[in-house]
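thread from #wetlab-drylab

HS: before we spend reagent money on co-crystallization trials with fe (ii) ion, can we at least see a predicted complex? here's what I'd submit
DV: go for it
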Amino acid sequence: MDLHSHILPGLDDGSPDLATSMAMLEGLISLGFSTVCATPHQKTGQYLPSLSAIAEAHTGLLKAVAERQWPLSIPLAAENMWDETLYQRMQDDAIPGYQGSRVFLLEFVPSHLPMGVFERIFELRCAGFLPVVAHPERYTPLWDSPDLMDRLASECVMVVDLAAVAGDNGRKQAKVSRKMILEGLAHAAASDLHCVADLKSAKKGMAWIRKKAGEATLERLLASNPRKILEGTHPG
Ligand SMILES: [Fe+2]
C-alpha cells in the first residue's frame, strides 16, 4: 500500500495528464502495490487545487482504472502543508484526510518546525486526529536531534520516501531515512511518486529495505502498518 503519491492528473507538480497517471499506476502495480493513496498537494500560494477539482480528477482516474479492470484501489487524501490553509481547516474541522477520515498526511517546510507544533499536534490527537508526517528525513531540525525525532515519531506517524531510502534525494536524506528504518522510527514507506521516472527510485528503495532490513520489515512498512494507519491506529 502506497500512502503518498501525486497520481491524480493535472492538479499539482505530479502527473500532468491521465495517460501519465495510468503509466504511473501500471508501474506501481508491477512493484506489487494494490492500494495507491492519491495525495495531491494542498499548499497555499503554490499548489492548492480546489477540493472539487481533486474529486473530479479522482473520479476520472477511478473510471479509467475500472475500464481496464486493474486490481487497484485508490483512496483519496491530500498532502497538507502546515500553513494557513491547514490552520483554517483545523478550526473548521475540515482537514482533507484519508477517505474523509481523521488520519491526514502533512508536510512541513524543510528548514524549520513551526512554532507550537507539538502543542497543536497534542490538540489534534485529543480531537481524534492522527497526523501522518510525509518524508520526515527531509526536515533539517530532526537531523541532529534524536530527541526531536523520537518525540515527533511518538506523536505522529512517520512515512519515509522510498526515493530517499534509495539514495536519490541526497546523501543526508538517505542516511536519515535508512537509520529511521533500522531503528524502527519509520512506520511506513511511500513512493511520493510525481512521474514515471520516479518508479525507478521507488523500486530501488524497496530493494534497499529488503536487503538491509529484511522482507518482514518491507511487509510491515508497505502493508501491515499502512493498513493500521488508515484504520486510525499509530503503529507504535
Ligand atoms: Fe508529496
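DV: Strands lie at 41-42, 79-81, 103-107, 130-134, 157-161, 188-190.
HS: ok that's useful, forwarding to the group
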